[in-house]
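Case 261 in the screening queue. Each case pairs one protein sequence with one candidate compound; here the compound is adenosine-5'-triphosphate. For every case the pipeline is the same: read the inputs, emit a complex structure as tokens, and attach any notable structural observations.

Predict complex for case 261.
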Amino acid sequence: MIGNTAEVSPAPPLGQTGGPLGNPTTEPLLNVRDLHVHYGKIHALQGVSLTVGKDQIVCLIGANGAGKTTTLRAISGILAASGGEVVYQGEVINAVAPFDIVGRGLVQVPEGRRIFSRMTVAENLRIGAFRQKDKQWIADMEARSLDMFPVLKQRFKQVAGTLSGGEQQMLAMARGMMSNPKVLLLDEPSMGLAPLLVEKIFDTVVEIRKQGVAVLLVEQNAFLALQIGDYGYVLETGKIVLEGSSQALLENAQVKEAYLG
Ligand code: ATP
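Case 261 output:
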């Protein structure tokens, strides 16, 4: 367990932005306020609050079982919250269906890729644009996604299950980009990848932000995540115990000891 220090802040009052405490974004896109999730009797999220601003990469770091995936799934509407609010573009979306949440531009790329392994790369990408009927729009999105992940161009007709782990991760992210997100929720994109590929994936996250997409990045590789991030939250057993600029967290002795080893 880690505590707070002068350089980083305890969790601020709910939804606060722009002040001396809290994520200093001037344009919050996503505000999670006092979120609670239960799995039966297990109280997995115990009042999580966080903010993601336009053009930001916000990192959510924490040990195994801290509740990172649960947080993303509750934001996406896949899991029902037992308390608190998810506010997206100024609107509470707790009761909005998951596919409508995707349609509004809040898009999750799940842990472990979850690509359709018997379908081709092209077919997987089209699934990302499942709500769109406009062929030109789909073609434009596809071109943008393939520009970001050139390796997928070469693999376009290939069955996705035959891709390498790194390529599958790129496909999962490209599929997320096909939904034209405003906020991308990325769950452990570096998991199981060789160091060189991990670097490539992180470069792509920076590229995604350059395209005007905000990113909420869940990562066990806290060092790399905080290096590309603007702001970070530390989650321990269902609670945000620490938050601050990525730089402040990188320099924080307790974060170093617990997560940057
Ligand atoms: P990891 O990095 O291992 O994926 P995490 O930080 O994403 O961890 P979660 O998967 O969100 O953590 O899990 C948070 C807590 O909720 C853990 O105690 C976990 O055992 C519990 N949990 C998660 N999913 C379920 C489930 N379907 N049923 C019961 N408990 C669950």
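Case 261 observations:
- Residues 39, 42, 44, 62, 64-70 surround adenosine-5'-triphosphate (CB under 6 Å).
- The first helix runs from residue 68 to 75.
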